[in-house]
């Protein structure tokens, strides 16, 4: 043993192995970006530690700053009732579920959360996974196969794209929110496929815009396809009382075949869900690899999301405040001549800066001025659409929003209408 550990100490990683790690795809780009940022005097805007509870404000480097970087849409992460529910579950069950739910990891709160999610949509059943990202990867990867067809919005989240890739199905992306393009693709490709699935989001996270849901429901019916809607940013945000994209359009939730959502945003936990038909959910519970072969959700997180969902229903005024805040931000930004793309002004408002360096610079200057907003840079988006992405919450106030838009407009050199100053 001594000889072995000595050999390990002497060796370290083999030079060839270390070189191979350095040569992994993207490593050189990352290095070049780091060097260029350093030369321009830009700090790394990623992985900054926050202290305290990130809501309308957050604490970075010992300074309280106004925060537009968190998905805490309704201010429920940090709500004393949510924290109490999580603590009670932890006192009762400990921190971990300690096993897959199928084999000894099931706790009553898992079923209670799933029943509440199913009731939210008025559908037969729901299943909760430990991660939103993993939900899309495992469900799409498992549900669809090489003889199938997935037609998806070009702007769908990485997790859907990865799941679609894993499935081996034929994948066709249609131009963002263009249901006519989706129809053309389905008309051309549906016949050659065994099963077909349309994947859209209820509220797009990069642009803050929404799809024409009734059109997609019709398309799915007409072309014998399932419709899956990722509501990660829709639940608690879209629709008059935050029910989601179906409420916005007056569509029955049962008209969507597969509802997907996350627990990490409005529901202030961590995880993902699928809601819909009982046979689909039972099949996923017994066979989806990311469920069967993964630990059950931490009971405290399930309890936190269950309590958050209860509060979402009980206090729709939170949704009204969020939407009013986002609408105010969007109106002021537009009046200041900022490019907000196609944002619907429901919670997410991008300000397109037009270059990664410009967006990184602006984000840094705003942070120095007491405002935290994350830049979205190349390669996440094309350099020409590099942006700052503002996540509004129900807890921001008018003064914060007015000051923020004024600061952005002043930094970009846009107009500064009198309204902004008030
Ligand atoms: N879907 C969408 C549309 C998302 O934006 C995200 C993450 N922000 C996910 C799925 C993954 O969810 P989570 O971060 O909870 O894993």
UniProtKB/TrEMBL annotation:
<dbReference type="GO" id="GO:0008483">
    <property type="term" value="F:transaminase activity"/>
</dbReference>
<protein>
    <submittedName>
        <fullName>Aminotransferase class I/II-fold pyridoxal phosphate-dependent enzyme</fullName>
    </submittedName>
</protein>
<feature type="domain" description="Aminotransferase class I/classII large">
    <location>
        <begin position="64"/>
        <end position="407"/>
    </location>
</feature>
<dbReference type="InterPro" id="IPR015422">
    <property type="entry name" value="PyrdxlP-dep_Trfase_small"/>
</dbReference>
<keyword id="KW-0032">Aminotransferase</keyword>
<dbReference type="InterPro" id="IPR015421">
    <property type="entry name" value="PyrdxlP-dep_Trfase_major"/>
</dbReference>
<dbReference type="InterPro" id="IPR004839">
    <property type="entry name" value="Aminotransferase_I/II_large"/>
</dbReference>
<dbReference type="Pfam" id="PF00155">
    <property type="entry name" value="Aminotran_1_2"/>
</dbReference>
<keyword id="KW-0808">Transferase</keyword>
<dbReference type="InterPro" id="IPR050087">
    <property type="entry name" value="AON_synthase_class-II"/>
</dbReference>
<dbReference type="InterPro" id="IPR015424">
    <property type="entry name" value="PyrdxlP-dep_Trfase"/>
</dbReference>
<dbReference type="GO" id="GO:0009102">
    <property type="term" value="P:biotin biosynthetic process"/>
</dbReference>
<dbReference type="GO" id="GO:0008710">
    <property type="term" value="F:8-amino-7-oxononanoate synthase activity"/>
</dbReference>
<keyword id="KW-0663">Pyridoxal phosphate</keyword>
<dbReference type="GO" id="GO:0030170">
    <property type="term" value="F:pyridoxal phosphate binding"/>
</dbReference>
